[in-house]
Amino acid sequence: MIYTLTLNPAIDHIVRVEKLDVGETNRMVDETFKAGGKGINVSKLLKNLGENSLCLGFVAGFTGFELERMTEDDFNLNSDFIHVSEGLTRINTKIKAEKETEINGNGPEISKSEIEALFDQLEQIKENDYLFLSGSIPKSMDANFYGQIMDRFKNKKVNIIVDSSGASLKESLKYKPFVIKPNLRELEQIFDVSIDDNDDIKLYAKKLQEMGAKNIIVSLGADGAYMLDENGNDYFLETPQGELVDSVGSGDSMLAGFVYSVINNNTYEDAFKFSLACGSATAFSENIARKEEIYNLYEKM
User: Which of 189, 192, 224, 300 has the fewest CB atoms in 10 Å of its CB?
Assistant: First the structure.
């Protein structure tokens, strides 16, 4: 079974205007609402590939009910969100004009009893299941919350995927996550260095592995991606050709594609190749990539 945890999901309100005039009344050309959040994006990609997962996380208020409805009705995802009493599920506004501007909400307040309810919920996860810990941690929760979750599974063989950054990612390494996916900037931040070439990427990926991570994927944007697997094999792959439409969800799609491929008994090398096809296909689309879009790219790589 696959579980995706999104602690601070959002409704993404995507607004398009011909030109953004600050301080003036602007008329939108069109708008779109999407259920947002890194774990939810993972579940969307898996669903498009025919793989079910269960979305977990916190929602609040009328926006929380709407996000829950969107995940279940619009995307046909399975969810078991915890409804919290304080605040609202955030709305993130993305204004697309000559330049893109984002205004992100804060999200709800999470109480100790609601955190305990999540820990109780996580008890259903069994050995050999997969758990995605994705995205930001609400301000009302400990910055090392992912580490607290992983500590509870330290004697249980659960495959945990961590998609976080900074101290949160660094603290998780000692619990030996199955896979992590920093981008180049995040890799530099972890070690407080400037990375200049491929040898540097390999060096610092190896350091992450020495700190506990089993498989490391480093996304390099338009330059492709690098992977160091738990067997010591490493690979660079170039991004397949295509027109960038929207990079939101691309990294989530990479991780989802990697796990999907591993579950279907592919080698780490093939899984890495498939993950890059998933991430690129999403970047070349207005939405999370569909199965046919992914395989069209994969077969050309």
Answer: 192
SS3 track for 60-127: EHHHHHHHHHHHHHHCCCEECCEEECECCCEEEEEEECCCEEEECCCCCECCHHHHHHHHHHHCCCCC
- Nearest to 237, CA basis, from 248, 252, 221: 221
Question: Does the annotation count 252 as an active-site position?
Answer: yes
Digit-coded pLDDT (tens) for 6-57? 999 999 999 999 999 999 999 999 998 999 899 999 999 999 999 999 999 9
This prediction has a pTM of 0.93
Q: Dump pLDDT digits (tens) for 133-180.
A: 998 888 889 888 999 999 999 888 999 999 988 888 988 999 999 999
- CA dist 265 and 243 (Å) reads 31
Radius of gyration of the chain (CA): 19
Q: What is the largest CA-CA distance in the chain?
A: 58
Burial class (CB in 10 A: 0-12, 13-18, 19+), 262: buried
Please tell me whether residue 26 adopts helix, strand or coil conformation.
Answer: coil
Give CA–CA dist 115/3, Å, rounded: 17
Active-site choice (21, 197, 252, 270): 252
The continuous run of DSSP H or E covering 2 comes out as strand 2-6
Mean pLDDT, the chain, whole residue set: 93
- Give the count of alpha carbons within 13 A of 287, CB side only: 12
